[in-house]
Amino acid sequence: MRYEVRPLTSQDQAAAWKLGSLAFGYHDRPMPEDWNSDSPGRYTLGAFDDSGRLVAKAVDRAQQQWFGGRAVPTSGVAGVAVAPELRGKGLARLVLTRLLGDARDRGAAISTLFPTVPFPYRRLGWEEAGWLTYLALPTSALSGIRPAPGIALRPATEGDMPAIFELYRDVARAGNALMERSGPLWNRTATEILESFDGMTVAVTTDGEVVGYASWERGPGYDSSGKITAYELIGSTHDATSTLLAMFAGWASVAPTAVLRLSTSDPALYEVATSSIRIESQQPWMIRVVDAAAAIAARGWPSHLKGSVDLDLADVECPWNEGRVRLVLDSGQAALEPGGSGEVRMTSRGLGVWYASAASPAVLRRAGFLSGGDAETDSFLMAATAGPAPTLLDYF
Ligand SMILES: CC(C)(COP(=O)(O)OP(=O)(O)OC[C@H]1O[C@@H](n2cnc3c(N)ncnc32)[C@H](O)[C@@H]1OP(=O)(O)O)[C@@H](O)C(=O)NCCC(=O)NCCS
What we know:
single chain; alpha+beta; Aminopeptidase; Nonspecific Lipid-transfer Protein, Chain A; 3 domains; 13-stranded mixed beta sheet; five-stranded mixed beta sheet; globular; Acyl_CoA_acyltransferase; aminoglycoside N-acetyltransferase activity; N-acetyltransferase domain-containing protein; Eis_dom
């Protein structure tokens, strides 16, 4: 059977809803009248059999993620589904391989996704780089945290949103993999954002400067199952972070469990009794380099590191990445130049994990993602993407 892979049209939307809702278990809901798999920044590819039936689909989201202080154009892959009778026959490979090419054509340098199952994505060159993590602890365990005297808390207003966005962006810019929350996929108004939580609280100095915020939801009930969830808790100072955390202690009588969605290396972890923490949930996410030259040029690099290493990249699904290239770093910029000896061999999974600062060359070597080279090249590659550990605070 030959399949046609093409972008969906308005005629295909009902079939896309059916395929997606069945795969992800919301098939009891009717398709909303104005539903469309495509919207600004979302591009859906479908595979059609020779009778014109939609049998597989995948969405490419035009998003950006921060690496080394620069926002990297990214293809966020979502909504991957194959008709139940046709799974295991190469349809996901067909659609995702085309998606990678199309994403590159529109300027995406890397791709990320939240897998329900990692194996098909591994076969196609993605690899796990981090987790979206919800930590749970007894709310009463927060009671030892003291609010800072110079910090007041109040509900956020629409006028606070620019400051809230900047607080988040400062964290994203200083980290790796965090989402840039602007562009066509981030078109909600300040009111819509505020209304999407039970509460958004800001921490304000005596001068009126917003130095922290927490967005939170109060779960149902007030018995032992009661829960308070902080989806985001960001303070630019210790005082802001501790005052926001202390506020959540006030929920202990009616919401005995506090859930915190925190980044991998989060200052809030230096405030709480980490021995009381358990993992409430952990959703892994994966990365893949879509266009190696563009990805290397797009991210930021350590400004004090200068040098080069010769790579030999293996990438069956994105053949434009394959072959010998020289990675050259200077003054916080990097480039991949064609040629070189190909001394260090890297697979596409290895390239993604290294690019994301998710693992050292020694780990990549043991995983079978990197070979060749020596202690010198390992040390250079290690310094180039030494950290911080990649982290995300958004699901997609
Ligand atoms: C996951 C899913 C999209 C995979 O689609 P598919 O068409 O069956 O995948 P393919 O046949 O193209 O497989 C691609 C590769 O992954 C491998 N693979 C696929 N599913 C696998 C699995 N569950 N375990 C291990 N390997 C798997 C295949 O062997 C193949 O490898 P190869 O091409 O190197 O031989 C499909 O099973 C599905 O729709 N599942 C339900 C919805 C879902 O989970 N979607 C994913 C959301 S993130």
